[in-house]
Design brief:
Elements: E1 4-10, E2 15-21, E3 28-34, E4 40-46, E5 56-61, E6 67-73, E7 80-87, E8 94-97, E9 103-108, E10 113-118, E11 127-129, E12 135-140, E13 146-151, E14 156-161, E15 178-179, E16 183-186, E17 193-198, E18 204-209, E19 214-220, E20 227-234, E21 261-266, E22 272-277, E23 282-288, E24 294-301, E25 306-311, E26 317-322, E27 327-333, E28 339-346, E29 351-357
Parallel strand pairs: 11-15
Antiparallel strand pairs: 1-2, 1-29, 2-3, 4-5, 5-6, 6-7, 8-9, 9-10, 10-11, 12-13, 13-14, 14-16, 17-18, 18-19, 19-20, 21-22, 22-23, 23-24, 25-26, 26-27, 27-28
């Protein structure tokens, strides 16, 4: 069976760690470490590479100068080798690739905007988007028509035409040279929408709320990008937590007894959704019905302060990393959506983000 590789961005370690994942047993083995990546905060994987050149992993770095680095991936060994880089105008907490693989979208929590720019090694200037205070994710739709951003600080989700020019868009006033939203939906005040994920058909969008612990399910209109709320369900019911608060340099840690959700992922077959909560170090598990709506299954204890999770392309395993444990755990996903820990491996300091690559051929 071909090897599956797991890449973990470790912020204080300044590394991207590469591990193998055994597709039969779920065993993890640490293979190598790409160093010299200070304050790496987010990753985006392009299995084909720009222009079909070679598989590439992009890493967003918040050290001075802020930049995105392209790492070439070796399908034989899983080694990630840093190569070209480009400086970017804002810090990042989330990066993603446009469907054509030539542009990166970056969410800046501290600057409160979304930025698009060509991948390293390609010419072009960055474009800024009016995405809102404490923007926490930037996710293009799989059909390549719109890009979506969640503003944790303004409790809204916005969408923009993927190829909109600065000054374009239709929702509200915007400053010159910045793309305005084509549309937006208001979330419940104080809920703090953080991360968004699409289902495979791109007709459902799932939003995890950092401060309330809710998951909202939206129907998506492919022609207009518009979102219509279908469901709101809690990922933190029974955990005994109070409402969370927006974290900043002036309020970095409101205490251990409030909601602090982080990441969510769907299995490739769309049957299950998983979401992490960092105050209790748990993973919430949901089933997904034929209409895309969720039913809560339960919580699974996991690594301390689970910032990032990922599901491997086969859908057999979920991986979770702990910001405070400096470890990665692999779980087998059961037919009932249960999670069984099967392997654990150490990482460099402060692991935040996971990408999984299964080379073809």
């Amino acid at each position: 069976m071909p090897t599956t590789y797991v890449f973990v961005a470790c912020q204080t370690g300044g590394t991207v760690d590469a591990l193998s994942l055994d597709q039969d047993t779920g065993a993890l083995e640490h293979l190598s470490r790409a160093e010299g990546l200070p304050r790496v905060a987010a990753l985006a994987l392009d299995p084909a590479g720009p222009g079909g050149s070679a598989a590439t992993l992009y890493a967003g770095l918040n050290a001075d100068p802020r930049r995105t680095v392209a790492l070439a991936l070796d399908p034989a060994t899983g080694a990630a080798t840093p190569g070209s880089a480009r400086e970017v105008p804002a810090s990042t907490c989330f990066i993603s690739l446009a469907p054509e693989g030539e542009r990166i979208f970056s969410a800046s929590y501290h600057e409160g905007l979304m930025v698009a720019y060509p991948v390293p090694g390609r010419p072009g200037d960055p474009v800024e988007y009016q995405s809102g205070r404490n923007t926490h994710c930037a996710v293009p739709s799989p059909d390549g028509r719109f890009v979506y951003a969640a503003s944790l600080g303004e409790d809204r989700i916005s969408w923009f035409a993927l190829d909109a020019a600065p000054g374009g868009g239709s929702a509200g006033e915007g400053r010159r040279g910045v793309v305005r939203p084509d549309g937006q939906v208001a979330e419940q005040p104080g809920s703090g929408p953080r991360h968004l994920r699409f289902n495979a058909a791109a007709d459902r969008v799932y939003a995890l709320h950092e401060l309330s612990g809710d998951v909202t399910v939206y129907a998506r209109d492919a022609a207009t990008g518009a979102l219509t709320l279908l469901q709101r369900i809690s990922a933190v019911e029974g955990l005994g937590l109070g409402p969370g608060s927006i974290r900043s340099t002036g309020n970095p840690d409101p205490g251990p007894d409030v909601v602090w959700c982080a990441d969510l992922r769907l299995t490739p077959d769309g049957r299950f959704l998983f979401a992490t909560e960092r105050s209790t170090s748990t993973i919430a598990r949901f089933t997904v019905d034929g209409d895309g709506q969720l039913a809560f299954l339960g919580h699974t204890p996991t690594e301390t302060q689970p910032r990032g999770i990922a599901v491997d392309p086969s859908g057999r395993f979920l991986l979770a990393c702990g910001e405070r444990s400096d470890h990665l755990t692999a779980y087998r996903i059961g037919d009932d959506g249960g999670l069984t820990a099967v392997s654990r491996a150490a990482t460099a300091g402060n692991p935040l983000w996971i990408e999984v690559w299964a080379p073809q051929g």
